[in-house]
Amino acid sequence: MLLLTRTIHFNAAHRLWNPAKSEEWNYATFGPGANLAGYGHNYSLEIAVAGTANADTGMIVNLTDLDRILREEIDRPLDHRHLNNEVAEFRDTVPTAENLALWIWRRVEARLTTDGWPCRLSSLVLKVTPTFSVELSAPAAAGS
Questions:
Q1: In angstroms, rounded to a whole number, what is the distance separating the alpha carbons of residues 29 and 10?
Q2: What is the pLDDT of residue 76?
Q3: Which end of the chain is less enclosed by CB atoms within 10 A, N or C?
């Protein structure tokens, strides 16, 4: 089994806020992250796919196709966006790094399957700051 890893970067803002909870609860839970205007991050995302090299091409997945998937599923909907306001799934779900990583996993995994690539998503690392990241791997993400 081979692993192929690709890294992309995107910038996005968000507000840590649970609309089902009170204002007091949100500020007590999320502190400055509950700021009405939100705040931003320069995210780094590493996506690893696992598979065996195709006998004809020598590739697990064509990087041009993987780049297209990442551009369409991650970069376009997230880059320079306010997650709470511009990404429907985060209007009612707190856009924490954990929830964002799961959202990314589901989109990329679905596209690899839909586009018919004989590889699977193996792991992803969403780096939020130089000292904070979230990592998902295939067995853990399957139960999400």
A1: 26
A2: 97
A3: N
- Name the architecture of domain 2-142: 2-Layer Sandwich (3.30)
In this structure, the strands spanning 39-51 and 132-137 are unpaired
pTM across the whole model: 0.93
Q: Give me the helix-helix angle, 97-114 and 63-70, nearest 10°.
A: 130
Neighbours of 35 (CB within 10 A): 13
- 123 sits in the region (left: phi over 0; alpha: psi -120 to 50; else beta) called beta
Look up tokens 């205007």; give the residue: 37
pLDDT at 143: 54
Handedness of CA 6, 96, 43, 133 (dihedral sign): negative
Given a cut of 50, the residues of the chain with pLDDT beneath it are none
d(CA 69, CA 82): 21
Cα–Cα distance for residue pair 119/132, rounded to 1 Å: 28
What residue segments make up the domains of the chain, in order of their start?
Answer: 2-142
